[in-house]
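Retro notes
What went well: the complex prediction finally ran end to end.
Inputs used:
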Amino acid sequence: MSRYIRNLIITLAVLVVLYGLNFVFAGRMISPYFSRILMLCGIAITMAVSLNLINGFTGQFSIGHAGFMAVGAYSSAYFSVNYGVRIAAALGDGTLGWIVALLIATLVGATCAAIAGLVVGVPSLRLKGDYLAIVTLGFGQIIVVFLNNIEAIGGARGYSGIPIVKSVFWIFLIAILTIVVVYNIVHSAFGRALISIREDELAAEAMGINTTRYKVMAFVISSAMAGAGGVLLAHFDGYLNPKSFEFIKSFEILIMIILGGLGSIVGSVLGAILLTILPEALRGFAQYRMVIYSLLLIVLMITRPQGLLGNTDAFKKWRARRRTKRDGETPVANSPAATKKEKG
Amino acid sequence: MSTFLQQLINGISLGAIYALIALGYTMVYGILRLINFAHGDVYMVGAFMGYYLAGGIGIRGAQMLMGNPDSNIFGRILAHGLLGGGVLQPSLITALVIMLLAMAICAAVGVIIERLAYRPVRKYSRLTALITAIGVSLLLENGGQVVFGADPKFFPELFQKRNLDLFGGASINTADIAVLVIAFALMIFLQLIVFRTKTGRAMRAVSFNLNSAKLMGINTDRIISFTFALGSAMAAAAGVLVAIRIPRIDPLMGILVGLKAFVAAVLGGIGNIPGAVLGGFLIGITETMVAGYLSSTYKDAVAFAILILILLFRPSGLLGSTVQEKV
């Protein structure tokens, strides 16, 4: 079977399954609380996997991811409130109308976030390590301050009245799309360039890789996907508040990918699910919930610093093992750059 | 003119506090290359320790804004006093004693944090250490909400505050004078420790190269602990001083202030002690100027905007030295 046909079949199967799930969830066969957490997991996966592209695979330490999420969320919300409603109405206000409206809103959000990523990335990606981290943090905070001050999108009161499109289908479509895009990037020449930048930037440059260009490209793509995650969040509750995009949110996403293991897509997905469920699971402890959460985080960092699946994609490992069995050669070991100790 | 002078005074007073906190950030970064995100929360703990100590020695006014004072151990100490109440009268000396005690407690807190959380991850990547720091920060914030209560508290007046009129219509509060004098005294004290003592020399050696310092027979673990103690004590002093100036404290007060103090440290050149002080004053003054002349809603963005500009044009900060990258 040719590759394209196989991919086409997989795509169709995923769409059908998601569409089916959508009916299961819409039909209230599953408690709204559970479906809400599931959908939040989907949004978290989008955010974590997209951040992993820049932090895990390119090795550039960004902690302003929530800022790009905010740009995507607010721009798409503005679009939906002012134009999306009209587009949906013009197409009969049915499912089709909303699919089109939301599709355009997603494009708008992702594009705006990508532009923000470009504006932030071009100057700041010249910096390295902690400095880059602080600059991205600073940009994230500045975005929040601006959101607080723009009256057209509600300012500090928050932006309400956004059309609500709560669907498992849509959220997981974006999440899966993010995973596929990141997976394909990482397994392409472009991705190998990114990984070489992570492993040794100077050596990568010596090999003729335009490191700044690659870093900015990865940053823009990552921002666009974060923007798409923001679009989902905006249309999830129909209400946005600048407070929810403070740097704490960026930290949360960062913790997800580090918990799961930097440079591991499966790990990011796992980390996103775990960190979304954990606070809910700890609800029984009432006020001690967040204390336990932070304690767990510290203990985990001490006992398993490389994260749950650090730098070892379970899937890749499995394939490598299969290939070894077949060809009888040892696979090239993954260099654990993220856990490597700094020189000097 | 009087507005300018007034804003300048406020800015310098605020800047002194940022500078004190920034010192802790910069020292820890200089030695461990670790952004100690929990530092801002140590500052919060310092303010709360001051609050409970003031209550403990029976200063009136140290009551909870809301809630039942008997609801937790701290509340009981506060309401009834450790020593039966009314031992010390509010005065500048009392304020100093409370501040020094809070500093001692926070120094211990800093050492414990380093020992339990940071030391075990020191052998791993810096990213791991950073996440641990975020974890400690979350722990202090959420633990603070559980232990101290989430509602804001009203810090008692440790000494009589008065407004002194200056030329040009501006006025300066005695609290601001106290903040400035104490902050400067602490900075000079720190400068003396770092540059005039044997321990200080060891600190500088460790920050220059940890492994070489170890080879020279320096007990690096002890120096790192000492650095944490020193930095945390400075943060606690800042916490008490802030509470004297603006008597409203809550468990999340350290987040934004800590972030801005960190920005101040980076601005001056992280790892550089005079740089942290300079950065602190710059951020403090600019912030109050923007709040006074432009818009107070944008003041939080200013610190970060300056930071980004500085880093883009002079990535090592104002006083930092550029390190050449070697292959």
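What we learned: The longest strand of chain B covers residues 163-165.
What to try next: split runs per interface for comparison.
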